[in-house]
Design goal:
alpha+beta; Immunoglobulin-like; Nuclear Transport Factor 2, Chain: A; six-stranded mixed β-sheet; five-stranded antiparallel β-sheet; 14 helices; 29 strands; 20% helix; 31% strand; disordered N terminus
Amino acid sequence: MKKLKVLSGGILIAVLTACGGGGSSSGTATPLAGTAAIGAPMADATVTLKDSEGNIQTATANSSGEFEFKDVGSLKAPFILKAVATVGGEEKSLFSALDEKPTAGKSGVINVTPLTNAIVAQLAPTGDASALFEAPTQLATAVTATKVNDATAKTVEAVKAVLTQLNIDVSQFDPMKSSFKADSTGKDKLFDLVKFQPSATGDLEITNKATGIATTVAKADTKEMVAAKPLAAISTEVLSFDFTKLKTLLTALQTKEGFAASMDENFLNDGMGKTAFLNEINQFFDYFKVIDYVVGGCDKDTSVCDGTVTIKNFGEKDETWIDKERFPVKYVNGAWKLYGNQSPIAFNLRQVIQIQTATTTKPKFDDLAKANGFQVGLQLDVPNPTFKTDTVKAYFCTDTKTTCSSDPFISLKGIAGTEYYVDAVTESGNFIEIKDSSSVEVVKEKYLAGKLWVKIVKGNDSYTFRPEFKFFTSDDVKAIVERSLNMVKFDEINTSSFTPAKRLEMIRTSISSPVSSFMELDEGKLMNAIKDAKVTVSEVCVANANPAGCSASDAKFSYIFQNFRDEFMPVSVWFSANKP
């Protein structure tokens, strides 16, 4: 059966009623409970608690993100905690930590949220929370009361204005230990309004989701330094949005009638209006279910909020799979309506790293002496189901949505008989390299100030939106590539699909969902990261200098394309085998 790609957008939010705080406990057990939330409950999360000696306890969160460890009395503090769940359509791993365990016989609290995750990144010696989780012997020196207090104080300081707006007493607020309900009120509403994104080295980017304006908290910053660059308060319009009512929307979306009634009359999504969209959805309605909704940015002027959802698909023979989709909603008369992305154009803009190497033998990651291509840039996918030959252009707009560059940063042309648009000049590919570091710096400056948009123009239609980019240092990229290569299972690559008639084969190894990303990077460090990984690609069709059955139609090269994805960004690698 056809795999359902339902929404190109988001929907809903599952509500949490979460969890547990301190107090007395029966008997001599010392329970530890908390809430796992990320702007939606981390429902069914696998929660792992590890002590300083590497001892482990596990728990499973309920639908509200609540979890409990029945007795941690035998463990030795400090603790680090990891919660893993699919939320907003992608697998998320968040971390938390405690420098001491609860008093014997008393229950304690340990929450895990984007805020606790940011604090643990600040505590980790390398800035990588996952690395600290894998090295419990470092907990005794990394997770001390002083260090936890300092990291917490400066991180909370950055969002002090927003916490005050939510009527949270900053002096009493402890992200790890303050009990809360994951119901989009109070402390939990913070994650609907603010995004916390730690880098691989521990620096933290905190973004007002409504404006896109960000502030950066460096790992080396003090509380006083952060106080001089706080995140601005949320607008009163966005603050008034009742995100708890997204639960009502989610309930309505479970039936065809409810879905139809939940759509705004001005609904438009990737060129489809309300009627066309419903016609497509209704064909597959029994084969998918919308599970949750994570709020993205909200526009105070239009009352529209973007967001991502988890969609559970049901196939034949009890097959199920998860999709991540984006779908904006609009706050109308105290209720949320499906609004669509309002784009007349269907497209996908993302960033990739590309590495190409030529070899006369089986290509290896640990021999890149002949590497002849390394690129970082943007890839624009535009479906061309009717084989049109018009053009699609993408422009950067800065300062305002209407102040756009005169020259597009990518220009595509539809080629009759092809599935997608390709480069208008070369008539191949849909990728544009970004290699001018000064240009990247300008883009970064505008992006962090909330003054960057992308405008897509197709024929007489156009769509302007605020992109989601991420900026990395060269050390970040090195860590990302190392993690990705270590997770790729090259021996499991299926070679049966390669035939002489195929010039290009794409083999996908999904590690986790990508995030569109710009980077500041050093090519040499990235190459060394790949070289250090020492991973060898399985033979596929490049078994020797004259790979039989690979690409009879190409006199020079046969290509194997490996696309693997890190939690931060996609990485693409081409291996080209020279033919005699």
